[in-house]
Design goal:
alpha/beta; about 240 residues
Length: about 240
């Protein structure tokens, strides 16, 4: 099934939804389209994974002249981060400025060898405003985040992988994305949702509260049909058939 918002192509294949932006500079129309599509997917209980990609490299080299990032509220990065399901982003070519902020909002970042990453915004006397200063410092070492932010340092795909900014560098980005999304799609959707919640909420609270959150989510998961199905499938020696309940 397919649909589209202005400048965002939407492809639905069962429990997976792929959002494709044009690539290059991000226009205001595309930014608004990403927000609308993410908002529409937020409460879709049949959804298991969302992929964000570009139709052509570069993935996103920055903001187009018609886009004032600070005026977009909510911004696309926040809208993607709010999705309860895992978000996978596939990156080829430049992933700079608002492009990197979009990528940082994803849970899994995959890159082609050609990918480059930077936050050059300070060179234009502006700050990243879609969470870049906060999410980058949580994704890589503070010293690396500081260099990328203050100096506008550009890093290669391999360097990004060594820093933990990118989870995988693949010559065949399409095949790597399919493998990751197939893996995620086979896992229990509630377990994925709770794990994502534990990581994101846990990063914002003291450790003792994070441990309590983990315990609470484990108790919730233990009471679900999916948990019972996982146990039964283990004893039956068959793949589980999770229903998201």
């Amino acid at each position: 099934m397919s649909a589209s918002s202005p400048a965002v192509d939407v492809q639905r294949d069962g429990a997976q939804c792929t959002l494709t932006i044009p690539g290059g500079l991000l226009s205001s129309v595309t930014a608004s389209g990403l927000v609308r599509e993410a908002d529409a997917l937020r409460e879709d209980r049949d959804l298991r994974v969302v992929v964000v990609r570009a139709a052509a490299a570069p993935f996103c080299s920055g903001a187009a002249p018609d886009l004032d990032p600070i005026s977009v509220d909510p911004d696309p990065a926040a809208a993607l981060a709010a999705l309860r399901v895992p978000v996978v982003v596939a990156i080829g070519g430049a992933c700079h400025s608002v492009g990197l902020e979009l990528a940082l909002a994803a849970d899994v970042r995959l890159a082609a060898p050609s990918a480059t990453f930077s936050l050059p915004d300070l060179g234009a006397d502006r700050l990243p405003c879609w969470g870049g200063t906060q999410r980058l410092a949580r994704a890589v070492r503070p010293s690396e985040a500081t260099a990328m932010l203050l100096l506008g340092t550009e890093v290669s795909a391999e360097r990004a992988h060594s820093l933990g900014l990118v989870h995988l560098v693949a010559d065949n980005l399409h095949a790597a994305t399919e493998a990751i999304t197939d893996d995620l799609g086979a896992r229990g959707p509630l377990a994925l949702e709770f794990a994502k919640e534990a990581v994101h909420r846990g990063a914002e609270i003291p450790l003792r509260d994070g441990l309590r959150l983990e315990g609470d989510l484990n108790h919730q998961l233990a009471a679900t049909d999916d948990r019972a199905e996982g146990l039964q499938a283990f004893f039956d020696k068959r793949p589980p058939d999770f229903a998201g309940r």
